[in-house]
Amino acid sequence: MKARRDIKTILILVISIVFVGLIPLFIKGEYVLNMLFLLCLYTILSHSWNIMGGYCGQINLGQAAFFGIGALTTRYIWVAGYPFPVALIAGSFSSLILACLIGIPTLRLRAHYFAIGTLGVAMIALITIQNALPGVDFLPASLMSDYNPTIRFYTALIVAALTIFAVYCINNSRLGLAMKCIRDDEEAASATGINVVRYKIITLMLSTFFAGLAGGLFAYYYVSYYYYVPFELMWSFDPVLIVFIGGAGTVVGPLIGALCYVILKEIFAISMGQVNVLIFGVVFILIVLFLPKGLIGIKKR
Amino acid sequence: MLSLENIDAYYMDFQALWDVSMYVEKGEMVAIIGSNGAGKSSLLKIISGFLKPTKGKVIFNGIEIQHAEPQDRVEMGISLIPEGRRLFSDMTVLENLELGAYTKKARKEKDITLEWVFQVFPRIKERINQTARTLSGGEQQMLAIARALMSRPKVLLVDEASLGLAPIIIQTIYKTIQEINRSLQMTIIIVEQNVRLALEVVNRGYIIENGRIVGTDTADALLNSEDVKKAYLALG
Asked: Partners of B102 in the beta sheet?
């Protein structure tokens, strides 16, 4: 019974990834490619939040710092002349190191205090970068000459597929089970012999690793941007929204959430400008009130 | 096998336990009785590691463990069935049981333990694929006991197993706990507000009042003591 459900999930995931991968072959244009890239980027970023928030129940609002440091490091190493995959991995590890330095102390905080503490981390990172690196990060001409958005989109797609696969494995592992226990009842988790602190640290490291990957892809795709842009707080809040739209603590949920988010944002941002932020606030409240398990919860009801 | 020596414990500024000493022998079943807020649950928290004493020692099989974390004490063989059961209610019965065997040692013997737990609780076996929240109160309590047994404990701590259950089910639960104690020689400490019920199943009891142990005796002696009758059994 459970095995059959697993096969169904895998099928849905594989078909959707292949489908997304085929779209650029039939619909040409940078606009579509950009949307698809954002879909992949948001899937990775929201899954990174989902690991910590959805599975382990720790509301981390510092994701922007980890996304940003991943972008900064990846870009720096890539521009310095190393192949992009090396830069990307280095970027992810830089997020992981930041997590060890800053994240682990904040894990001593519980519940709301953890959320506020991590938000503080994100704000400190943002303000630091705004002051330390006020300029615009341009790609050098040597890298511009072979710039190809199609390749960049497919890179993002592969990373997204690997991320989803990793979350799928976590979901079905003992680690995943321990994470869900900590989310449901920390004290009962310790009472069954789970080392809560150790698992929270492992979860944070996994989560930030994927946030760093997403940041690296951002740095790979965009030609020029202000240094502080990947540190902006929206990279903390968007994944929360996406995960809740789709369904927290699930493998497929963030995928659905990212799709809805990219489409809605495109519609609202074009027609309403900054008011779209207000609309997403309302969407978030409605989702939490009426669909606490996200869109994926509708089917289960 | 397990002893507490001169334990003081605080919740912030409030002292919950005062110079508490007690012991349990291997295979013994002991009750801690007392009224609301007397410190019964605090005592279990000291033994399971959720509350650390400011003074005194917890000695388990000759080792001082007062500084050990709860999960490490589970590994050593001290398992708590928390008050209010604290099941993982969105997970299935089987998942809850598997979680009970999370420690390294218990994992190796998981299948054997599971077989045995199903023998003790046949009702649980019928419901392995249901989520824990769909069980009745009594079944949930049985699952909580079963989950604790999955860790292969040497000492089982039972906190208010009667909470929110019908009298007839409470009887069944305590009979089962007694059965576990007798057939496996498992050391069991129970905390219970229902004093008569507790004293009927255990060998020995400690009476705790305002955070202090005020008396200890065999269960029979306590049941017949005038003080206990007056204070806890609403007799005399």
From this structure: none
Domain segments of chain B as ranges: 2-86+153-232
Residue B12 phi/psi, 5° resolution?
A: 50, -115
Evaluated on CA atoms B60, B62, B68, B72, the torsion sign reads: negative
CATH superfamily label, B2-86+153-232? P-loop containing nucleotide triphosphate hydrolases (3.40.50.300)
Q: Say whether B88 and A188 touch across the interface (CB within 8 A).
A: yes
CA distance A163 to chain B (A): 25
User: Any idea where the domains of chain A sit in the sequence?
Assistant: 35-239
Kindly determine whether residue A193 and residue B103, on different chains, have CB atoms separated by under 8 Å.
yes
* pTM of the predicted model as reported, rounded to 2 decimal places: 0.88
A180 at interface of B, judged by CB pairs closer than 8 A: yes
Residue range B86-134, pLDDT digits in tens: 999 989 999 999 999 999 889 999 999 999 999 999 999 999 999 999 9
Q: How far apart are CA B30 and CA B73, in angstroms?
A: 19
Of B71, B82, B89, the CB nearest to A193: B71
CB contact under 8 A, A193 and B75: yes
User: For the CA atoms of B21, B25, B28, B33, what is the dihedral angle to 10 degrees?
Assistant: 0
Range with the poorest average pLDDT among A99-108, A200-209, B134-143:
A99-108
Residue B133 DSSP code = G
Smallest Cα distance from A101 to chain B, Å: 24
How many beta-carbon pairs below 8 A join chains A and B?
58
pLDDT digits (tens, 9 = 90+) for B189-216: 999 988 888 999 999 999 999 999 999 9
B87 touching A (Cβ < 8 Å)? yes
Q: How confident is the model at residue A111 (pLDDT cuts 50, 70, 90)?
A: confident
